[in-house]
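B., you asked whether I could sanity-check this one before it goes into the benchmark set. Here's the sequence:
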Amino acid sequence: MITRITLIGLLTLSLSCLAADDKKRKDVYTDPKDAGADFLIQGEYEGEMTLNRGKVKIGGQVIAEGDAKFHVRILTGGLPGDGWDGRGVREAEAQTENGTVIIAGKQFRGSIPDFGKLMVKDGMKLDSTLTRVERKSKTLGEKPPPGAVVLFDGTTADQWEGGKIVGDHQLNNGIVSKKKFKDFKLHVEFILPFMPKAREQGRANSGVYLQDRYEVQVLDSFGLKGEDNECGGIYKQAAPLVNMCYPPLQWQTYDVDFKAARFDKDGKKTEDAVVTIFHNGVKIHDNLKLKRATLGRNDKEDATPGPIHLQNHGDPVFFRNIWVVETK
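And here's what the prediction gave me:
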C-alpha cells in the first residue's frame, strides 16, 4: 500500500525555517513531529521515465545525513521490492541551500524545491518530477490466527522478562519471551528512530533473535546495499535478497517461518535450522539454512526450544503486534 503525501499543517512551513529549528534539537527522534526539516525531505519517491521499450517506473531514495545534507539514489525500474532489479542506480549528494535541496553529482543533478517533489534536471530525462510516497507492508497490523501465542498486543508486557509498555502501546527492547519455541511462524512489527547523524551499526541498531540463537538484524539501513549486518540480514551469515528497509519512523514487519535444527540421540546435528523471512511483505530469505548460531549470543545449538529475544543495542527501537504460531 502506498500513501501519497500532501503539504498540510506543519509541512507548509518553509524548509529554511525548519532547518534553523533543527539546530536546537537532539540527534535522536522517536516522534515525527519533533524530527525537523531533514526528516520531512528524507524518504521514498516515485516517478516515470520513457525508454525505448516504453515507460518504466523510477524510484528515488533520499537519505538524511544530518546538518541538512543528504544522499540521493535514483533507481531504474522502481523502488526495492516494487520493480527495481538491484542494479540500475545513480547516486548523488545533496544539501539544503536557502530553503531548497540542491542535488549535485557526477551522475545526475536536480533539486527538491518543495516538500514531496524531487526534480532531476541533468543526467536523466524523467517524464515528470518524482513524488514522495510512504509505503506500508501488506502484513502491517495482521491479526493473530486462532491458536496463536500472543506475545504482545499493546495491553500487557507480561509475556516478557523485563518487558515494559512504552510510548503509544509499544514494547521496549532488551527483553526475552518467557515462552520458548521449537518450530514456529512469527509476526513482529518494529519502528526505527530517526538518527540522521549516526552511521552504520550506530544507526537504530537492534535485532530479533529466533530461539535466542539466530539474529535477524534490525537497523536503519534505508538506502544502503543490504549486507548481512544490515536490516533483514542474518547477522554475519546471509544478506537479504533485497534491502526492504523503509525510512525510519515508519512501522515495518518481519514474518518468519522457522524450522529448528535437528539432532540425533548423541547430540550431533543432523539438519541445519531453516528460515524463510518476509520483510515488509517481500521475501528476503527463502528456505535459508542456518549453519550456526549467531556468534556472541547463545553460541551453542541444541535440541531445546528457545525464546524470542528483542535485542537492546542502546537505541530506542520499539515493537508491537508480536505473535507466534507453533508448527509441527
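One thing to flag: The radius of gyration is 21 Å. Otherwise nothing jumped out at me.
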